[in-house]
Amino acid sequence: MNGRNEAPFVGCCMAELLDRGVKFPMIVLYPTTTPAETAMIGPYPLNVALDAAPDVSADRRRPLVLLSHGSGGSPILYRTLAFRLARGGFVVGMPEHPGNNQRDNTLHGTIENLIARPRHISAALNWFSESEWFRSTLRSGRVPIIGHSMGGYTALAVAGGIPTALPHEAPSGFAHIITGTRDSRVGSLVLLAPATIWYRSEGALSEIEAPILMLFGNRDDLTPPGIHAKIVLNGVRNREKVRCHIVENAGHFSFLSPFPPYMSNNTFLPSQDPPGFDRRSFLDKLHVEILNFLTQKGT
User: What digits encode the pLDDT tens for the residues 14-27?
Assistant: First the structure.
């Protein structure tokens, strides 16, 4: 997608989602014609027009894409990707998974988290379908999901995967199959260092037919591709629909937006990459690849 098709500015607003009585926020970035200025989204500066009206001047509806963050993470950690997609014409919804984020990670490692995470994506889709601001501007059709790490688990679940909770995650102490996570509104998937060990059972991914773009770092110790990529490649019915790349010298956190210098240190692992890896340069190329994939496959 070239510059002539890019939105003039990026708007940003906050939404409140609801899942079974639990309220949680979602950041939305989207094309707008309102001039942008530097705003602080959490501790990070971003050139956006806060609470600006979506751009409805284009002679076409906008595609929607949702992004699911990693365990103990935050949607704002993917702000540069979301910004690039919004400039490219997408409306980007980034929910914060309750109980599995950087402010509250009490559900980490539980079956409750495995069950709830896919519901959060469905809640986000519901919000967009009911939003007076966005429902008239969104393109119909299935919605792509981008997921990093545990977000990759989430994307696979809502696309039709059947996960199995590990024995230590279930109160019974036994492995437990989780059903009912699929959402028929979900389309193609972008999986960034996805956590996939919950899909090792036979047939767990056989119902997923959507195109998949999947990337791993070859220096990833948390979701090593030798294990996690093979689960997807061997589990889907049609491997030809999976485009898998192993990124040389990248680590698990190399897919996150760069951190400001005052946050980058050896004790804060998400800010760190293997020696010699240029995260900014890599992300510039990655964002273009994802945008092209979504434009061709996801909408």
Answer: 999 999 999 999 99
User: What is the Cα–Cα distance from 63 to 59, expressed in whole angstroms?
Assistant: 13
**pLDDT of 108 over the 90 cut:** yes
CA distance 70 to 149: 5
* CATH number of the domain that residue 62 is part of: 3.40.50.1820
Confidence (pTM)? 0.96
Number of domains in the chain: 1
Q: Rounded to the nearest 5°, which phi and psi values hold at 176? A: -135, 120
Q: Is the pLDDT confidence value at 136 over 90?
A: no
Q: Is the dihedral of CA 255, 261, 266, 268 positive or negative?
A: negative
Residue 182, classified by CB atoms within 10 Å of its CB into exposed (0-12), middle (13-18) or buried (19+), is middle
C-alpha angle 151-6-243 in degrees, rounded to nearest 5: 40
Burial class, 188, CB count within 10 angstroms (exposed 0-12 / middle 13-18 / buried 19+): buried
Q: 114, 178 in Cβ contact below 8 A?
A: yes
Q: Are 188 and 208 in contact (CB under 8 A)?
A: no
pLDDT value of residue 1:
42
Q: Which domain holds residue 25?
A: 3-298
Residue 168, both tokens: 């230590």
